[in-house]
């Protein structure tokens, strides 16, 4: 009898569809809110979003204020006020949906309400007397103009432009990129043949942007953490993307196929990238692996590998 009475109380654990993403924000005050035009929550209160301090972020560095005490902003018409005392700092965004929901996860937007609330950390500034180090080809950036193939908003520099095949941003500068647009003007490849995404957090990409559309933010001190670029249509059969990038922590990746998202394991902000569009008949240099990240290695590591190869 008791077993029959308890049966209806069992199996009440429901596995929701959930996703977790981490935003990296600079020092300042930000408003995180729902993008307009999204369906509201159903009878269960889902979908919904919770904003909280990311694990590993020291207490007191990030403060999240919402109408609910637990950081819940619901599925529509909600907002969170995020104060970052010292950046970059992580903010955890967790989305919840019904198990069989056919809709995409709720989309959020971020607006900066105020600048840094405390003195910037000394590490944010470039070393005053750092010796010059060899880097990849010198950036050929110019002030952004309507006819630029690649445009970007760069920390401390504003809007700049470069051509396909030239560095956007300066490797080693520690100035992050906040957003970009790409509109090639090449024989056989135009803006209509390309699309791209910005990496916003771990496993979190922006929606695809069409060629010529701006992707990211501008003047909000919100760095992007990487990018993904791909060709579409008939151009996919005639050309390939070759992408190289550097990040503010010194990580350098590439060249890789742009169809893979290029981001540092450390989630450091994107500092510079080199986009090349090559004929599919062209081959990659022998010392690189097309489609795989190529990281800097020390001479000691290289010598060890050479010795192991000789021994085998």
UniProtKB/TrEMBL annotation:
Classification via Pfam families: ChW
Compositional bias per record (Basic residues), positions renumbered to this chain: 293-304
Protein name listed in UniProt: Clostridial hydrophobic W
Compositional bias ranges of the Low complexity kind: 114-140
Segments of this protein annotated with the region Disordered: 113-153, 286-312
Organism expressing this protein natively: Gluconobacter morbifer G707
Highest taxon of the lineage: Bacteria
InterPro entries in UniProt: ChW (IPR006637)
């Amino acid at each position: 009898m008791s077993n029959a009475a308890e049966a209806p109380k069992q199996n009440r654990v429901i596995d929701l569809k959930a996703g977790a993403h981490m935003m990296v924000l600079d020092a300042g005050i930000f408003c995180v809110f729902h993008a307009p035009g999204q369906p509201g929550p159903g009878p269960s209160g889902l979908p919904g979003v919770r904003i909280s301090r990311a694990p590993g972020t020291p207490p007191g560095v990030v403060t999240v204020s919402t109408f609910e005490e637990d950081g819940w902003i619901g599925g529509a018409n909600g907002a969170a006020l995020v104060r970052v005392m010292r950046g970059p700092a992580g903010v955890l965004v967790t989305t919840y949906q019904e198990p069989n929901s056919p809709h995409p996860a709720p989309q959020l937007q971020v607006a900066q309400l105020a600048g840094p609330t405390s003195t910037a950390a000394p590490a944010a500034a470039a070393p005053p007397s750092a010796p010059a180090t060899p880097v990849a080809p010198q950036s050929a950036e110019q002030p952004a103009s309507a006819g630029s193939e690649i445009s970007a908003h760069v920390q401390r520099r504003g809007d700049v432009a470069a051509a396909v095949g030239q560095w956007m941003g300066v490797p080693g500068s520690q100035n992050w990129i906040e957003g970009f647009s790409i509109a090639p003007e090449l024989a056989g490849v135009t803006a209509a043949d390309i699309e791209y995404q910005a990496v916003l957090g771990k496993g979190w990409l922006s929606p695809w942007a069409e060629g010529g559309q701006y992707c990211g933010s501008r003047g909000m001190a919100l760095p992007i953490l990487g990018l993904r670029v791909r060709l579409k249509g008939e151009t996919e059969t005639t050309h390939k993307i070759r992408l190289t990038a550097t990040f503010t922590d010194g990580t350098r990746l590439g060249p890789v196929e742009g169809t893979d998202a290029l981001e540092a394991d450390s989630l450091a902000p994107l500092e510079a990238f080199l986009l090349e569009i090559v004929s599919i008949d062209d081959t990659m240099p022998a010392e690189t692996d097309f489609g795989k990240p190529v990281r800097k290695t020390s001479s000691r590591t290289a010598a060890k590998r050479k010795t192991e190869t000789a021994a085998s």
